[in-house]
Design a protein that fits this description.
Largest sheet: 4 strands, parallel
CATH superfamily: Response regulator
Order of helices and strands: HEHHEHEHEHH
Strand content: 5-15%
Number of helices: 7
Distance between the termini: 39 Å
CATH topology: Rossmann fold
Shape: globular
Oligomer: single chain
Radius of gyration: 18 Å
Structural class: alpha/beta
Strand order of the largest sheet: 2-1-3-4
Length: about 150
Amino acid sequence: MVTAKDRFHGFQDLIQNRVQDVLLVSSLYDYYILSQDGRLNEQFLGEFLELNLRHTPNITHVFSGEEALSRVTASSRYNLIITSIELGDMNVLQLIDELRSQGIETPVVLLAYDRRELARFIEKHDVTIESDRQAHANPGAPQDPVE
């Protein structure tokens, strides 16, 4: 039986890992669309209100993958990176490869306009290589298929 004390302790463990600083990486056009649309801010606000959290995360925006790498390597404050597929100077896979090669394990969330854009990106780039690389790094780990 789970006691209230156990539940509270579990919540305390989670709250230590809450997202406080987000790095948003997108082109100027994508940033304009996101800021004019307002859905990203609404989504953040809605999630935080639903969880009864008092502070929403700080969102810092950069316009290129190189600038993102510079910010993340200069400061370990970012808990989450949200990025569009194409960043002008690189794509999301190149950004992730650069982050991981520098030992940065910050979670990266991909923004795509729709499933079609994502499917085209997966088709254009051999995304299965990433899955194969993970399989070699963790031979016994189950693999998620790419749809």
